[in-house]
Amino acid sequence: MGQALALAQTVLYITAPNPRVGCVIVRDGRVLGQGATQPPGGPHAEICALRDAAARGESVAGATFYVTLEPCSHYGRTPPCVDAVVAAAPGRVVVAMGDPNPQVNGSGLARLRAAGIPVTTGVCFQEALELNAGFAARMSRGTPWTWIKMAASLDGRSALHSGMSQWITGAPARADGHAWRARADVVLTGMGTVSKDDPQLTVRDVAVPRQPRKAVVDGRLQISESARLFDGAEVWLFTAHDDPVKAARLARRNARVIVLPGPEPGRVDLAAMMRWMARNHVNEVHVEAGAGLAGALLSADCVDEIVAYVAPVLLGDALGMVKLPMLSHLDGARRFDFVDVHAVGKDVRLRGRFPDRWQTLQTAATPR
Amino acid sequence: MGQALALAQTVLYITAPNPRVGCVIVRDGRVLGQGATQPPGGPHAEICALRDAAARGESVAGATFYVTLEPCSHYGRTPPCVDAVVAAAPGRVVVAMGDPNPQVNGSGLARLRAAGIPVTTGVCFQEALELNAGFAARMSRGTPWTWIKMAASLDGRSALHSGMSQWITGAPARADGHAWRARADVVLTGMGTVSKDDPQLTVRDVAVPRQPRKAVVDGRLQISESARLFDGAEVWLFTAHDDPVKAARLARRNARVIVLPGPEPGRVDLAAMMRWMARNHVNEVHVEAGAGLAGALLSADCVDEIVAYVAPVLLGDALGMVKLPMLSHLDGARRFDFVDVHAVGKDVRLRGRFPDRWQTLQTAATPR
Question: What is the ipTM score, two decimals?
Answer without folding.
Answer: 0.92
